[in-house]
Amino acid sequence: MIDVKIKDRELQDKIELVGRADLKCGMMNAAIGPYLKKGEKFPYRIEGFLPKDMRPEKPIVSEAEKSKRWLAAGHAMMKVVKEN
């Protein structure tokens, strides 16, 4: 029962950390928002305000997968060109 309470509290702490990071991100972006031009993205992300152990990991893409993606994009572009 104690273990369940500890895990519940740890989960609640993580939820609070994400909430605080969201507030910080919103406040930092709100000051910059009026000065952004149309189409520009906000410079601050929630991940920047989270502890390092809670940040999502970037997926590692192999060279073979990159080649497949480029080839698929090239084929899609050529299909559009041939249709026009």
Structural features, described:
This protein has 84 residues and is mostly helical. It has one domain. The chain contains two helices and no strands. The protein has helices at residues 2-32, 63-83. The model has no long low-confidence stretch (mean pLDDT 90).
Question: In summary, what is this structure?
Answer:
This protein is mainly alpha-helical and 84 residues long. The chain has 2 helices and no strands.
Quickly list its features:
mainly alpha; 84 residues
> Helix proportion of residues, in percent?
55-70%
Secondary structural class: mainly alpha
DSSP strand tally: 0
Largest sheet: none
H/I helix tally: 2
The overall number of domains is 1
Strand content: under 5%
Give the low-confidence spans: none
Instruction: Say what oligomer this is.
Output: single chain
Shape: flat
What would you report as the Rg, rounded to the nearest angstrom?
A: 21 Å
Give the mean pLDDT: 90
Distance between the termini: 67 Å
SSE topology string: HH
